[in-house]
Design brief:
This protein is an alpha/beta fold. The chain is built from 14 helices and twelve strands. The longest helix is centred in the C-terminal third of the chain and has 26 residues. It binds nicotinamide-adenine-dinucleotide. Nicotinamide-adenine-dinucleotide binds next to α7 and β7.
């Protein structure tokens, strides 16, 4: 197991490195290492048995130089203030890198939603949003789904906010159900965006994605759609996994058949048409062209990095590669498309949803997908060009370039606004 990191310390360390790389002043670090505001709220919930239980939640607003704060809300029994702050800082960089008119924000409630009834979850969601309603808004801060929150949660947030503010504020949250101004494209957006980044990296490294071998860890929203679109693009998806283990076929898996097995039996390991079962550890060490970690953080670490054979790693999950492992991979010449670049598809489509809400429903699903693709390609190319032209590629990976572009844009906006 990797050492337990404080994500806020990790976020500050990355910022410090980027400030040094860009030759910026200590003042910039001081200003950006602390969030603008963190609101901690008490959420009393009437439980089904008549008792009242108190939960605790946060909304962290890191920086809004580029526009309203934007980022999801997670419900998790182990989430904590520092995690929410770190995630809000990473959203600032992700939104900046994607060229979106947004700052970074994130929310969290310390709760295990699987232990609550639907009614309890609704009361908790409405109360949390009421408690943060003074600092969110269509032009202030726009939450979205994250771990264990979903379109239904967003529907409750939207309704509660609209009730309190006496209007119809569709743009106050994104990732809403279709009936309430959401977009179907949002569902596939992260995996599709990851697949597009993998395709573009493959063009640069191998001359194309066709026939290239791919392994995907995690077969949920991000992993399944990444595998599906990569297969459609002509890649050979040889291995996929979930929390119970994985399956492998040298000729390539039928990704739809595997999905059906997962839906019906709860895991990909029950897929009989695959050549053999593998463990998650084996999947990470397969001799493939492209590895897509799409499950959890810290899976490529000092402990296994020497056995990782992939030529490119496309990070659909947040934080799958530890800094120590990245150093080794960079020396070996392995290209890593970092999370803030490779999994930005979700927030890019969230932006399209928000614009659409403000325009009264104008953009079609086809238009949304086209814009997502364009943005992912442009973003990857901008990061790649920066990496090749401005950095020592034997010392720095694409992550350093992505952070440099993202932080620089925020700093320039702050200077223009007279904040620095
Ligand atoms: P999900 O819950 O839909 O899927 C997660 C998958 O990972 C499941 O198949 C699960 O079985 C598997 N998994 C869990 N623990 C595992 C383990 N120890 N080993 C192997 N597999 C394991 O979640 P998701 O929305 O697909 O998110 C996956 C990752 O992508 C997360 O890091 C998330 O932060 C990131 N991400 C997702 C989105 C999005 O829009 N869905 C956007 C940005 C980032």
């Amino acid at each position: 197991m990797a050492a337990v990191h404080d994500p806020y310390e990790e976020a500050k360390r990355q910022l410090r490195q980027t400030v040094e790389l860009l030759g910026l002043s200590d003042e910039v670090y001081e200003v950006l290492s602390v969030p603008d505001r963190v609101l901690e709220v008490k959420i009393p919930v009437r439980m089904d048995d008549g008792s009242v239980k108190v939960f605790i939640g946060w909304r962290s607003q890191h920086n809004n130089a580029l526009g309203p704060y934007k980022g999801g809300v997670r419900y998790h029994p182990e989430t904590h203030k520092n995690e929410v702050i770190a995630l809000s800082m990473w959203m600032t960089w992700k939104n900046s890198l994607a060229g979106l008119p947004y700052g970074g924000g994130k929310g969290g409630v310390r709760v295990d939603p699987r232990k609550l009834s639907a009614g309890e979850l609704e009361r908790l969601s409405r109360k949390y949003f009421e408690m943060i309603s003074d600092i969110v808004g269509v032009d202030q801060d726009i939450p979205a789904p994250d771990v264990y929150t979903n379109p239904q949660t967003m529907a409750w947030y939207f309704d509660e906010y609209s009730r309190i503010k006496r209007g119809q504020y569709f743009g106050v949250v994104t990732g809403k159900p279709l009936e309430l101004g959401g977009l179907q494209t949002r569902v596939i957006s992260t995996g599709y965006g990851t697949a597009v980044v993998a395709r573009e990296v493959a063009k640069k490294l191998f001359g194309g994605i066709e026939g290239r071998t791919v392994a995907v860890q995690g077969y949920g929203n991000a992993g399944y759609y990444a595998a599906k679109f990569l297969a459609e693009m002509g890649a050979r998806v040889v291995a996929v996994s979930d929390s119970k283990g994985g399956v492998y076929s040298s000729k390539g898996l039928d990704v739809e058949a595997v999905k059906k097995v997962k839906d019906e039996t709860g895991s990909v390991v029950n897929c009989k048409s695959a050549e053999r079962r593998i463990t998650n550890e084996e999947l990470l060490e397969l001799d493939v062209d492209i590895l897509v970690p799409a499950a959890i953080e810290n899976v490529i670490t000092e402990a296994n990095v020497d056995r990782v054979k992939a030529k490119a790693i496309i990070e659909a999950a947040n934080g799958p590669t530890t800094p120590e492992a990245e150093e080794v991979l960079t020396k070996k010449g392995v290209v890593i498309a970092p999370d803030i670049l490779a999994n930005a598809g979700g927030v890019i489509v969230s932006h399209i949803e928000w614009v659409n809400n403000r325009m009264g429903g104008w953009i079609t699903e086809e238009e949304a997908l086209k814009r997502l693709e364009e943005k992912m390609v442009n973003n990857l190319n901008a990061v790649w060009d920066y990496w090749q032209s401005k950095l020592d590629t034997s010392k720095y990976n694409l992550r350093a370039a992505a952070y440099a572009i993202a932080v620089d844009r925020v700093v320039r906006a702050m200077k223009l606004r007279g904040w620095l």
